[in-house]
């Protein structure tokens, strides 16, 4: 290829990239999780696929060990490297993975080093250097049609019966995948990631679909407040309670005891450790499924959902770490805070101590599961009352920010609104952790 032809090719690639980015800007992205069926591959092809992750680890550790000058001058055409084994001895390695994988590992590591340098410059502190990796479980596939592509049917239709196969660079045989039904027919495929998990290898495929008009909720449910807790994980202002905890089974505890008795590094030790990793992955999937179901039940059909910015990490580090670890509170909170319908109240708002009449009940303790207001005599389950208090605080926040509000603060304030406004203006200390862990 002559220099002029190469320049024209590069310009054509840049123009296609600009056009694609402009088209994707008007579309909606989403990620599909597809599981590869390795049974359709022979032993050589299956071993080659797993070898990609091993070679990426070799290359990553080799690049981390280079000096800065040699790292900047590294050529992505390099196939021979020298890495260290588990005993620290240098071993010559030959890379057989596609060249695009080498480029992606180098680019990813270069970006990590730049981010670390920017963080060090911003904080003014010495943050150290990147650590060597014991495993490399995610391979970037950033060029659809080169590193990966969806196999089309005999008539060029990707929606036919052959749509459930995918090609990975370096593997000649198409690989059957599970989960293609979640991708719409008008989706446009983009980059992906090849992820290795204890249960197998997955393809995280990024797709773009046209933006459709948002579907209007058929239901018109009332506004709701959500209270997070330990004994009862989720409590709503309507009195509903959800348990989103999935605790460890006896099988997992037995495997951990078995691993402790085995010799580290033996074949049985690795087999038991893999079984433990599968059990933990199964637990994680169950918790994600429960969090998704509760999220759907809470958000669907509502215009306003009020939650409190609870310190879930602090709960985990405290006396209730085991209960928090077995629940999906963190996952559910992250999903709720990403929704536009959610209104988040300050973390230190005394939702447990403040009554719906506005009185502050300072003498309530964690053992008091029923809230009794000494001022108005209101009696309610403490978690349900906390959720109702959060809902009132959220409505007060909205009322104070409405542009058409013409009444004075004194005219529009109820007893609760006045108490909430006084709490915001005061320098009262935050709510005690013992009263917030409901």
Give a verbal description of the structure.
The strands form four sheets. Strands 4-8-9-1-7-6-5 form a seven-stranded antiparallel beta sheet. 41% of the residues lie in helices and 18% in strands. Mean pLDDT is 85; it is low at 153-161 and 432-436. β2 (80-84) and β3 form a beta hairpin. It is globular and about 85 Å long. The protein has 438 residues and is of the alpha+beta class. The protein contains 13 helices and 16 strands.
Short description:
It contains 13 helices and 16 strands.
Output the structural class: alpha+beta
What do the pLDDT scores average to? 85
Helix content: 40-55%
Distance between the termini: 70 Å
Strand tally is: 16
Number of helices: 13
SSE topology string: HEHHEEHEEEEEEEEEHHEHHHEEEHHHH
Q: What is the strand arrangement across the widest sheet?
A: 4-8-9-1-7-6-5
> How does the major sheet shape up?
7 strands, antiparallel
Radius of gyration, CA atoms, in whole angstroms: 28 Å
Strand content: 15-25%
* Low-confidence runs: 153-161, 432-436
Shape: globular
